[in-house]
Design brief:
By secondary structure, the chain is an alpha+beta fold. It contains five helices and nine strands, in the order αααββββββββαβα. The protein starts with a helix and ends with a helix.
Length: about 210
């Protein structure tokens, strides 16, 4: 009875993992395909069940985590996702959703000495209620992170001129509405120092 249990467990281990030894009565030459070539298919991050540890030398098999999709280009975001164009010179932002102008708003970017960086940025992180870890625990509602060193879109005071520590402040109602349509894989923010006075001009920057 004990030998039968060991043989059955060995056969199951070989069936699931391929690399386990075959039962004594089954040779590799005469083994059916299920024993000879058995693919291992588990969800990402899965580990080998401990039941089969003795037949794998007590090793733990960790599959690689899934690869995150790359952010879109500005052209792809304009066509299929959300494109946000921020003009530092105009202190204005224009938002396009699936190829159409969605809305625009006045913004407040970084004051002298805390310049908002220019460039193309994906959304790295989102949080409805966030506080700054750099500037006196300042509230940053509807925060959408653009860089890991502290630059983000968020609701805040918009006085009509650059006044932030580098973030892009938005009116609260606009920030909340924008938060609802963005995501990590389809949104791109383009920050430019060019003066932009219309959505048509903003579209041409992609």
């Amino acid at each position: 009875m004990y030998r039968l249990v060991i043989a059955s467990a060995s056969a199951i281990g070989a069936l699931l993992f391929g690399s386990a030894a075959l039962p004594p009565q089954v040779s590799s030459a005469s083994a059916p395909p299920l024993f000879a070539q058995s693919p291992l298919t588990l969800y990402p991050g899965a580990r080998v069940p401990t039941l089969f540890g003795p037949y794998l030398g007590s090793r733990s098999l960790k599959l690689p985590d899934p690869v995150e999709p790359s952010p879109p280009t500005p052209t792809e975001a304009l066509r299929d996702g959300v494109l946000i164009v921020v003009s530092l010179a105009s202190q204005h932002a224009y938002v396009f959703w699936k190829g159409r102008e969605w809305d625009s708003t006045q913004v407040s970017t970084g004051r002298p000495g805390y310049d908002t960086p220019k460039g193309t940025f994906p959304i790295l992180q989102k949080k409805v209620l966030n506080r700054s870890t750099l500037y006196n625990d300042a509230p940053m509602p509807f925060m959408q992170r653009l860089t890991w060193d502290g630059v983000a879109l968020h609701a805040g005071r918009v006085p009509g001129y650059p006044a932030s520590h580098g973030c892009i402040r938005l009116p609260k109602a606009f920030a909340q509405k924008l938060y609802g349509i963005t995501n990590f894989s389809s949104t791109i923010v383009v920050v430019t120092d060019q003066r932009v006075s219309s959505a048509q001009e903003a579209r041409k920057l992609t």
